[in-house]
Design brief:
Elements (H helix, E strand, L loop, with lengths): L2 H15 L15 E8 L11 H7 L3 E7 L4 E7 L12 H18 L3 E7 L3 E4 L6 H13 L9 H11 L5 E6 L8 H6 L1 E8 L1 H4 L5 E6 L6 E6 L1 H24 L3 E6 L4 H9 L2
Helix pairs in contact: 1-3, 1-4, 3-4
Length: about 280
């Protein structure tokens, strides 16, 4: 394991198991029970489980029956297109590695299954579900070692892949900068989806740079131009339109989300968002 990956592993593991986050309840909150059916109330049933809507409709009391869920299936997807190879404080891909480490260690600590996927224009890596710390170490190392330059994030291919491969309901975390054509509707029907938007402040609040020669990290194509106020105005307008469409979709389909910037502590930001 290289130094960068080792540093991220040690940091996120300490945060999850140490005093900062370790004394708190699990990040993955829930009752641990799955609703299965309705049954007519019998003497001795817990009155808190009465379904009052059904009771009112049928004129006699009914209760909800649950089965216990033994473990959560936590799946973390790191979308590592070329655009993640950017950052004024840290690279976006490094923040993605930190968030993946936090989620992985939290899952293992909670005795839940953890698996990790690296995706860009196609599937590059998929780990088997595990409750071992080694699986988290490997996920972080694979993110750090991955070469995103020249790869374009394809959300359509991602959704198709996840829909075909994830047979069991999952607590599904997708880590990406979420710029482009994103539609997670299909996944939200089957899974509990949480989107972690990783951005650099400069992307949202850029300054005039003058005449520059730039390289597109996804296509590797270079171009020259004057980055003036007019160019920035059009860019900000396009990004705002992208985000408005994104947030509207998330809210419509019950997809929880948070945004983490490269200058922030990814683990703490995620923890606060999960507890809201």
């Amino acid at each position: 394991m290289n130094k960068k990956a080792k540093k991220i592993v040690l940091k996120t593991k300490k945060q999850v198991y140490g005093d900062m986050l370790g004394n708190n309840a699990s990040m993955f909150q829930g009752e641990g029970f799955e609703f299965t059916e309705l049954r007519e109330y019998v003497y001795g049933d817990d009155v808190r489980k009465i379904d009052w809507k059904t009771t009112a409709k049928l004129g006699k009391p009914f209760v909800k029956i649950y089965k216990e869920e033994r473990e959560l299936n936590v799946v973390v997807v790191s979308m590592l297109g070329g655009s993640t190879y950017f950052g004024t404080v840290k690279q976006k891909s490094d923040i993605i590695a930190e968030v993946a480490g936090t989620l992985g260690f939290s899952a293992v600590k909670n005795a839940d299954l953890f698996s990790h996927m690296i995706f860009a224009d196609k599937l590059y890596d998929l780990s088997k579900p595990s409750k071992k710390l080694f699986s988290v170490n490997r996920a972080v190392e694979n993110i750090v070692d991955f070469e995103p330059i020249g790869k374009e994030g394809d959300f359509k291919a991602l959704v198709e892949t996840l829909n075909n491969r994830l047979k069991k309901k999952a607590l599904l975390f997708i880590l990406s900068d979420f710029v482009g054509d994103v539609d997670l509707k299909l996944l939200s029907k089957k899974h509990d989806v949480f989107a972690v938007i990783v951005r650099d402040k400069f992307e949202e609040e850029p300054s005039e740079l003058g005449y520059l020669r730039l390289i597109d990290m996804e296509t590797k194509q270079s171009f020259e131009g004057n980055i003036d106020s007019g160019t920035l105005k059009n860019y900000k307008k396009a990004l705002l339109k992208n985000d408005e469409k994104l947030y509207k979709q998330f809210k419509k389909h019950g997809i929880r989300f948070t945004k983490v910037y490269t200058h922030e502590d990814g683990a703490l930001k995620l923890m606060k968002s999960m507890r809201r």
